[in-house]
Write a structure and sequence with these properties.
The complex is a heterodimer of chains A (112) and B (113). In chain A, 0% of the residues lie in helices and 51% in strands. Chain A is built from no helices and eleven strands. Chain A is globular. Chain B has 113 residues and is an all-beta fold. The chains are: A mainly beta (112), B mainly beta (113).
Chain lengths: 112, 113
């Protein structure tokens, strides 16, 4: 089936630094999402993105977070600056028509 | 707020036995959410197992079934006879028009040979 790729698979970073998580969505998909899962907790919606704009974001999507997809390349989640509580697995997803979402394998982020 | 609650794992079932993983939801901000079951097999990413977008309808895939019951706000996942390859983590999810998904906590299923 369609594949969503995420780069890197793991990232360790010092608190206060910037990190960019990359997502390579399914090629003809138009809607893009980020979810966050802290160890032992539920996967939670962060943000969705369409036509160059954020459509909806949750309260977990702090001011330090930003998303973009410049020129149809990677869909990125940037955190600047990072905090300890940002340690989690971040999942990217994409969909063609807001229906079925296809998920990437996740990026495990550890903030020290 | 809206939420999804499912059977707390881990769940262990013997091969060829039947399975039910319960899922109930609370959807206060949308009258008719879409309902999904996603699955994560060991070493793989999350993938869609089945979905139902109309209340009263049943979805099925790979021998699994789930019926969208609006009266009881439930979407239980069932399979008549499990196989070892069904070992995975199963997630029930509620979907909004904008595409946002609300997930349950996941149920880890192990199949005993």
């Amino acid at each position: 089936g369609p594949k969503v790729l995420q780069i890197p698979s793991h990232q360790i970073i010092d608190m206060g630094q910037m990190v960019t998580l990359n997502c390579d969505p399914v090629s003809n998909h138009l809607y893009f999402y980020w979810y966050k899962q802290i160890l032992g907790q539920q996967m939670e919606f962060l943000v969705n993105f369409y036509n160059g704009k954020v459509m909806e974001k949750s309260k977990l999507f702090k001011d330090q977070f930003s998303v973009e997809r410049p020129d149809g390349s990677y869909f990125t989640l940037k955190i600047q600056p990072t905090a300890l509580e940002d340690s989690a697995v971040y999942f990217c997803a994409s969909s063609f028509n807001q229906d079925t979402q296809y998920f990437g394998p996740g990026t495990r982020l550890l903030v020290l | 707020g809206d939420s999804v609650t499912q059977t707390e794992g881990p769940v262990t079932v013997s091969e060829s036995e039947s399975l039910i993983i319960n899922c109930t939801y609370s959807a206060t901000s949308i009258a008719y959410p879409n309902l999904f079951w996603y699955v994560r097999y060991p070493g793989e990413g999350l993938q869609l197992l089945l979905k139902v977008i109309t209340a009263g309808q049943k979805g099925s895939s790979r021998g699994f079934e789930a019926t969208y019951n609006k009266e009881t706000t439930s979407f239980h996942l069932q399979k008549a006879s499990v196989q070892e390859s069904d070992s995975a983590v199963y997630y029930c999810a509620l979907g909004y028009n904008q595409g946002k998904l609300i997930f349950g906590q996941g149920t880890k299923l192990s199949i005993k040979p």
